[in-house]
């Protein structure tokens, strides 16, 4: 049973699944009783804190240079739902500034970009403690959003998507941490350099869930009553801000759910390349939303969370200056000036829609009842 639900709300089937998922961990907890006392104390500390120590890689914003060496042809042919891990190495400067090569593994993931882009999105795994003297230690199995085409214009699209992640992180910790990488791709089969492009290192979902004091929930079918109203209102207003309709909590499409031990289910959104703020040339819209362009915003907030919308709007107002500042900092300066100006105008239109309570209420009156 959810501990923080109003008595008028009845836990749904997905809530019970979340509780059952927590209870299913009981055998593992019993087995852990046999571990040494020191190790048990360490685990308990992590459990209470949600995170023992933030990974160093997410503590900075300066682009991190790495060289990823792997069989590129092999990876590009891995388009199945459950792709195998492939051998790889990552070369990076260690804490002393000297280059070190780490043993790693890489595998493809994703849907649209996996099928349509020249270089697929990846998940990485640094083997053992190979990364302990570098910024890459303690990451788990993070994702890397790579370039779609080996062209400067696609670098700009990737920078725009990175900024969307950074805006979301400004608004709520219930989001993925990110770091900009400057990645040189080397084909291990030929020994030749394939490309050097920007990429986005995205926090491992399981690490994020641990940081939030919960675990990933894989079951589909979430309804508005399953989700925490406040965080969901923020996520929905954020998707409206960036002009994104390419997501579904019910279908876990570009969304994730974190189940906390108190029964709360937290919504997370990710993957923003089909949003208006990125405005990728390949991005399309779903006809069901009645818009013709990704630059046309659609508010998809749930009417069940109507009472949480004003507080979310107030949060966005409080963060406005910090959001705009992202487009003038060291990452923003990597973007073309024309793209920055266009993005800020796009943000201006969002803020016009919530400028007064009356305008915000007019927006919120367009809420939806399902998915």
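-> sequence recovered:
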């Amino acid at each position: 049973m959810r501990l923080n639900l109003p008595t008028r709300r009845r836990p749904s089937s997905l809530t019970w699944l979340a509780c059952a998922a927590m209870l299913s961990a009981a055998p593992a907890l019993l087995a852990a009783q046999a571990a040494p006392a020191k190790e048990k104390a360490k685990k308990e500390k992590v459990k209470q804190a949600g995170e023992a120590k933030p990974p160093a890689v997410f503590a900075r914003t300066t682009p991190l240079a790495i060289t990823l060496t792997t069989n590129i042809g092999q990876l590009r042919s891995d388009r199945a739902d459950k792709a195998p891990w492939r051998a790889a190495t990552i070369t990076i400067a260690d804490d002393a500034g000297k280059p070190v090569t780490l043993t790693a593994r890489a595998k493809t993931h994703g849907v649209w970009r996996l099928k349509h882009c020249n270089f697929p999105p990846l998940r990485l795994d640094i083997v053992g403690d190979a990364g302990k003297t570098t910024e890459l230690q303690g990451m788990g199995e993070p994702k890397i959003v790579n370039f779609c085409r080996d062209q400067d214009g696609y670098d700009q699209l990737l920078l725009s998507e990175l900024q969307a992640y950074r805006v979301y992180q400004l608004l709520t910790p219930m989001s993925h941490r990110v770091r900009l990488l400057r990645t040189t791709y080397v084909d291990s089969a030929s020994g030749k350099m394939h490309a050097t492009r920007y990429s986005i290192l995205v926090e491992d979902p399981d690490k994020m869930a641990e940081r939030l004091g919960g675990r990933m929930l894989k079951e589909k079918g979430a309804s508005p009553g399953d989700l925490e109203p406040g965080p969901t209102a923020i996520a929905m207003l954020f998707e409206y801000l960036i002009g994104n309709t390419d997501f579904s909590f019910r279908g876990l499409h570009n969304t994730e759910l974190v189940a906390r031990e108190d029964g709360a289910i937290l919504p997370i959104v990710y993957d923003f390349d089909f949003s208006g703020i990125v405005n990728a040339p390949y991005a399309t819209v779903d006809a069901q939303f009645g818009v013709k362009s990704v630059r046309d915003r659609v508010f998809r907030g749930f009417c069940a969370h109507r009472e949480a919308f004003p507080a979310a709007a107030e949060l966005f107002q409080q963060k406005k200056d910090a959001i705009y500042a992202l487009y003038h900092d060291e990452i923003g300066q990597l973007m073309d000036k024309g793209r920055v100006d266009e993005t800020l105008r796009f943000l201006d239109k969002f803020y016009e829609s919530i400028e007064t309570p009356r305008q915000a209420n007019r927006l919120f009156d367009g809420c939806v009842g399902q998915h």
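The radius of gyration is 21 Å.
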